[in-house]
Design goal:
Elements: H1 4-18, H2 22-33, H3 37-52, H4 54-65, H5 74-89, H6 94-109, H7 114-125, H8 129-139, H9 143-151, H10 155-166, H11 174-181, E1 188-191, E2 203-204, E3 211-213, H12 220-225, E4 230-232, H13 235-245, E5 255-258, H14 265-277, E6 280-284, H15 288-298, E7 307-308, H16 312-315, E8 321-327, H17 342-345, H18 350-367, E9 369-379, H19 385-397, E10 402-404, H20 407-414, E11 431-432, H21 435-438, E12 444-450
Parallel strand pairs: 5-6, 5-8, 6-7, 8-9
Antiparallel strand pairs: 1-3, 1-4, 2-3, 9-12, 10-12, 11-12
Helix pairs in contact: 1-2, 1-3, 1-5, 3-5, 4-5, 4-7, 5-6, 5-7, 6-7, 8-9, 13-14, 13-20, 18-19
The structure holds S-adenosylmethionine.
Length: 455
Amino acid sequence: MTTAREVAFDVISAVRSTDAYANLLLPREIERAGLSSADAGLATELTYGTLRRIGTYDAIIAAAAGRAADAIDPPVLDALRLGAHQLLATRVPPHAAVNETVELVRQAAGRRATGFANAVMRRVSECDEAEWLAQIEADARSDDEKLAVRYAHPVWVIRALRRALAAEGRAEELTALLDADNAPPAVTMTALPGIADIPEGMTPTTQSPIGFRLAGGDPEPLIRSSQGALRVQDEGSQLAALALSRATPVRAGERWLDLCAAPGGKTAVLAAEAHLHGASLEANELSPARARLVRTSVAAVPGDVPVSEEDGRTRAGRGVYDRILVDAPCTGLGALRRRPEARWRKTPGDVPELTSLQAELLAAAVQALSPGGIVAYVTCSPHLAETTGVVAEVERQFPGRLEQLDARAVISDVSLTPVDLPAPADGSGRAQLWPHRHGTDAMSITLLRRVADQT
Ligand SMILES: C[S@@+](CC[C@H](N)C(=O)[O-])C[C@H]1O[C@@H](n2cnc3c(N)ncnc32)[C@H](O)[C@@H]1O
């Protein structure tokens, strides 16, 4: 029988060795092991908690082992990370954490490594997390390195997040944001507008008019019984889709396009909105496997949503559209709560390649707009290069042909309660949502309107 700890170890190892995604692999492994719901909860906590804090645990393990973490045999390091998490951040009794870690090391790396693992685990167990952090921070070379260890974020991510907050005069919120990135997000759900109502007894979200929270438990039965009209979706994603569909009143017959659509959460909201107002929606996704997810996602909405499988840079120009969503591939620095390993996997070197793709996708969308048409440029990243940088680049390419709408005002109108969206220093209309302030992923939303042709 596979235990919760073994499931967590297998997932942590696969994330390291095969670049697996924990949020996709873990549910499969839990099912395969036939874990009870209590053990599934434990496996999830152990996996996510360990992966989120890898940078911190590696620093502690290195200090306890007297050698750099990357000089430790990788399967042994996986077990030590999981062991450190149990010792420093859970109520697992220390002797159990040490013994189980040594046993995992024996299974994964053989008897030879068990003495080392035992010694390191015993050293780690001699101090609590606060004492370890104080020791490691004392050796840090900069304040950002101290933050990196304490809040388990790479230094470059901390700097990018600080710059993004500072752009709206809120740099002092940095540690609240880093804390929020380390807390599991509450499950929010959407009732697709015009297709399902928020079920009785559920708590409506305060910002999105189509969102609600489960009292607790598994959302699956609700999703199944509503045939997908009720679904899990971050409140920020709901607001991003509604910012486009409700930016201006919809005229019947409008043509809409979702250019980078998979897995299709926002596509479904747009499809429902289009259906309500007599508009039509097309969707596109580069990856054929992911395009299938989009088709499944829109199945709950009456009417046809054709889904093409093309590069958005060429696909956009095959039509003329009144509204286009460019929810661009990005670093995902705004969704660190959901993808525990993501912060350690991305590098600053990923940013330039992504920003040129983002600018090309946005420029292609702009060219496909009808006069007066609107494009929503959305990233699940607050990194300024991916947000204001890309928009400024595309505005430069279309001088005098684009105007920014006030996305903050649009979101405030869409929302049921006032949304705290400070104006960025660059004077743009961009809206930036944040986990610590809005309880959403850190979505950036810019609305650009093609200026109607002068006659
Ligand atoms: C941020 S995700 C979109 C999320 C989606 N809008 C939702 O709410 O479910 C970006 C998507 O763009 C796709 N993509 C990447 N490069 C693309 C390209 N050149 N053209 C079109 N889609 C692309 C990715 O495969 C990914 O599915």
